[in-house]
Amino acid sequence: MNPNPLLKKLGFSDADRLVIIHTDDIGMCQASLQAYADLWENGTISSGAIMMPCPWAAPAAEYCRLHPGVDMGVHATLTAEWDAYRWRPLSTLDPATGMVDEDGFFWRSAEETQAHGDAEAVMVELQIQVQKALAWGVDATHMDTHMGTVAHPKFIPAYIQTAMQNRLPVMVPRGDAAVYQRIGLDPETAAGFAAFTARLEEQGLPLVDNMVGMPLDKPEGQFEIAEKLLGDLPAGLTHFIIHPSTDTPELRAICPDWPSRVANYKTFMSEELKAFLKNSGLQVIGYRDLRNLMRNG
Q: What is the share, in percent, of the chain residues with pLDDT greater than 90?
């Protein structure tokens, strides 16, 4: 792949290693919002995204209104994965849309949503999620995707179109067909999508080079894991995913993987991680930088 043209547009060289340290699932529960607020103040994250259909989306939006400089996007949400803690689409509960299960909630898995969901209904849902965030006073910086559910030929056009209609960067990796096959697209679709994203990049849509994330099944030794993953990042722009939450009874009741979410939080709150980032040679940026570049040309 050719070097990402974003780097020079942002004032960096092709050899620089840029990273967006991104907190997923904000607003899923209170613990996720508190973690975001703490980590933003600590200076060890640079972005996050709200799950607008979730119960704590409104308090997350209020936090954004009270802290207008934060970097917060919309976490396109089409699944509700937990056993006893569920949420529904904002747009409709009509089973004919294929977006809801027999209980009227989003499907639990990306595969179920991709199998059943109607493309037009998903387009409407994504547009409403973004519009509600904006109406609630969130200065949205980007769109990304919960559980990668939009990574399907039916849904990718809605995802990208919704972002572009609102002049938002969208979390999409740049690459050739092999890159897109690795995220689940069939060879023909992957080849078409590679050509499509190349055209979008030519038109000025910012794209990331890599996506890397902290594991949710290894609560022990997370500082060492973070140090290794961040230290090994290549040149280009990486979307680096963490799922931090404070340790609460609510979180423990919701998420079987709560120990790793709490470990994400503690690791990125630590002075050791803060010092590592300072001395790592990484250039930490946010999606606001990409949005400003996209809108200002």
A: 85
Residue 251 DSSP one-character state: H
Residues 57, 62: Cα–Cα separation, whole Å: 9
CATH fold for the domain made of 5-296? TIM Barrel (3.20.20)
Length of the chain: 297
Helix axes 119-135, 156-165, angle to 10 degrees: 30
Start-to-end Cα distance in the chain: 23
Among candidate residues 76, 171, 81, the one with its CA nearest the CA of residue 133: 76
In tens, the pLDDT along 178-225 reads: 877 876 777 887 888 788 888 888 888 899 999 999 999 999 999 999
Q: CA-to-CA distance for 270 and 39, rounded, in angstroms?
A: 10
Long-range contacts of 224-233 (CB under 8 A, 24+ apart): 226/267, 226/268, 226/273, 226/276, 227/273, 227/276, 230/19, 230/276, 230/277, 230/280, 230/282, 231/280, 233/17, 233/19, 233/282
Counting Cβ atoms within 10 Å, is residue 9 exposed (0-12), middle (13-18) or buried (19+)? middle
Residue 284: pLDDT band by 50, 70, 90 thresholds?
A: very high
Per residue in 33-86, pLDDT (tens digit) is 999 999 999 999 999 999 999 999 999 999 999 999 999 999 999 999 999 999
DSSP per-residue string spanning 62-102: HHHHHSTT--EEEEE------SS-----SS---GGGS-B-T
Residue 297 has pLDDT above 80, yes or no: no
